[in-house]
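Long-time lurker. I teach an intro course on protein structure, and each term I like to show students one example going from raw sequence to a predicted 3D structure in token notation. This year I'd like something fresh instead of my usual example. Would anyone be willing to generate the tokens for the chain below so I can use it in lecture? Attribution to the forum is fine with me.
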Amino acid sequence: MNELSPITARGLARDEIDLRQALQRFVEGRLRDRNDGEDIVQETYVRLYSYRRTRPVADVGAFCFAVARNLVFDHLRRRHAQPQSAELADDIACPQPRAEEILDYRQRVEILVRAIKVMPPLRREVFLRRRLDGIPAAVIANDLQLSVSAIEKHCSRALADLRAALERRGLPAGARA
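-- Reply from a regular --
Happy to contribute to a lecture. Here you go:
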């Protein structure tokens, strides 16, 4: 049995601690990330012990630094190959409307469509051509042989009808409740 003296054992333990600290500084100096550095040092030791099962290692320090250097390169290569991503904060709003907003919009559209359907035909035509199609009031006036003032009044009355339809349902005439 080949036992080590307590002094020799303490010296070897100190050497291992020094080696681990040196590896940690070496890896963290290249990665600038303590957690990834610890993972790489741990993987270095796993590979050292795995290698030692089948072959002797003449210089453990040199072996560990070579393994750690290769692991750092592999890690950096993988990091650069991945798309950059950042952790998202919990308070970042989603640009999509919430379900309640969608339901509110759909309800408003249904009310407005019904209100447009019950408008007098001339008012509906003027309003849709002016507001939906964006046709200038002068062109509509010329097509329908009306004055520009009459076109504007039809549009004003149509908007009043739409506001009233929303208010009858308890919804404000603004963009949303």
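Some talking points for your students: The mean pLDDT is 84. The two ends are 86 Å apart (CA to CA).
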